[in-house]
């Protein structure tokens, strides 16, 4: 542990202990008289209740539901900490709720579940629908998270697993701009994705709208020759590895234009990067230590390098997407987040950078344009879908 990390740990523990949590519930109205009490509670509250009972779709007109997101986790895949359980995951979920409020003025509430059973999680989330306008699934291990999200797409409100699709959208946005820097068409690139968990498979799915990437797991290239693939890895073969190559990660990297890592630290050397195509692009996103450090990747010939860290250029950060995505989804009453919406978000995010450079392919998370741009992309995509029916 380096000195800076130790300092952050100590300061964070002190902050959380002093606050006893990072979020709270605040009343929007003053209740200091009997008249005010009668309006917000009995007997006055019966009136909006009866309106909603007669017209359930009006619940958003009278309650917080239309601006309320549930941040749901079972604590099975928290940051880089692994399966630490629901209680230990709560500080992260509080932080996510806080970011929703800060960046997009969305009220969000953390709900950590004392179960890691897929059927139970699906049942619980279904039962939450009357209270929330959307569900952000967070830090649930793969492949369970994929099944949970897919089974909840008919809920009537957006259910979005940020670890999958938030990452995938930002990666695509960064790659669109990196392709402009190196003057290569994304459709013509040979792309290698290392890591076949939730994020890696989602990246493969979104990139397959442009190209057929090669996905590599800890045992090598995912191909038709493998007989050890789980159901999700088998499914991804319909979108990837069109040439059906096999072998190791190093085999896949030969003449590749792009490496995207969502895997483990210190996996590659500069010699590995040297086998890639000229002006290669490296997204080494393992945290806190990437698959290869930026200076090593550059020494191997990489032209554009991105990581998940804030202390290097080109940070791939999900906060660029999820606040604006849910802002747009709530405002437009979107029932589900479609692939077209995800692609629209990626393009909108990319083109907030007018002239990308090697060190600037993604905007700063604090850029005040970002939430509005992403929200508008969701609204426009939804509107186009509605008009095409």
Q: Specify Rg, calculated over alpha carbons.
A: 22 Å
In what range is the share of β-strand residues?
Answer: 5-15%
Q: How do the SSEs run, as a string of H and E?
A: HHHHEHEHEHEHEHEEHHEHEHEHHH
Report the structural category.
alpha/beta
Please tell me the overall pLDDT.
Answer: 95
Distance between the termini: 55 Å
Order of strands in the sheet with most strands: 7-6-5-8-9-10
**Helical coverage, percent range:** 40-55%
Tally of helical runs: 16
Q: How many DSSP E strands?
A: 10
Stretches where pLDDT is under 50 for at least 5 consecutive residues are none
Biggest pleated sheet: 6 strands, mixed
Overall body shape: globular
Question: In a nutshell, what does this entry contain?
Answer:
The chain is built from 16 helices and ten strands. The protein is of the alpha/beta class.
């Amino acid at each position: 542990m380096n000195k800076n990390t130790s300092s952050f740990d100590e300061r964070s523990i002190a902050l959380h202990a002093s606050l006893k949590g990072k979020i709270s519930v605040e009343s929007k109205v003053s209740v200091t008289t009997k008249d005010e009490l009668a309006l917000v509670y009995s007997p006055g509250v019966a009136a909006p209740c009866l309106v909603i009972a007669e017209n359930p779709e009006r619940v958003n007109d009278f309650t917080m539901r239309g601006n309320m997101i549930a941040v749901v986790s079972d604590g099975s895949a928290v940051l880089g900490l692994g399966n630490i359980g629901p209680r230990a995951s709560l500080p992260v979920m509080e932080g996510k709720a806080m970011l929703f409020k800060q960046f997009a003025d969305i009220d969000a509430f953390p709900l950590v579940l004392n179960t890691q059973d897929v059927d139970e999680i699906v049942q619980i989330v279904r039962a939450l629908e009357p209270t929330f306008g959307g569900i952000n699934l967070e830090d649930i291990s793969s492949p369970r998270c994929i099944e949970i999200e897919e089974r909840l797409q008919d809920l009537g409100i957006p259910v979005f697993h940020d670890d999958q699709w938030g990452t995938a959208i930002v990666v695509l946005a960064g790659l669109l701009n990196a392709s402009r820097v190196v003057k290569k068409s994304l459709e013509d690139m040979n792309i290698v994705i290392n890591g076949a968990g939730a994020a890696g498979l989602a990246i493969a799915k979104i990139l397959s709208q442009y190209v057929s990437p090669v996905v590599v797991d800890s045992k090598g290239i995912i191909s038709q020759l493998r007989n050890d693939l789980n159901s999700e890895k088998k499914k991804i073969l319909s979108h990837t590895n069109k040439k059906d190559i096999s072998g190791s990660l190093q085999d896949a990297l030969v003449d590749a234009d792009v490496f995207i890592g969502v895997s483990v630290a210190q996996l590659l050397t500069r010699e590995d990067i040297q086998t890639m195509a000229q002006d290669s692009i490296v997204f080494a996103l393992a945290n806190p230590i990437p698959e290869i450090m930026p200076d090593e990747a550059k020494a191997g010939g990489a032209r554009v390098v991105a990581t998940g860290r804030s202390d290097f250029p080109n940070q791939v950060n999900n906060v660029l997407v999820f606040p604006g995505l849910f802002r747009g989804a709530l405002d437009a009453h979107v029932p589900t987040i479609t692939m077209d919406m995800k692609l629209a978000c990626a393009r909108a995010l990319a083109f907030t950078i007018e002239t990308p450079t090697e060190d600037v392919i993604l905007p700063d998370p604090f850029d005040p344009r970002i939430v509005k741009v992403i929200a508008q992309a969701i609204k426009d995509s939804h509107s186009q879908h509605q008009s095409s029916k």
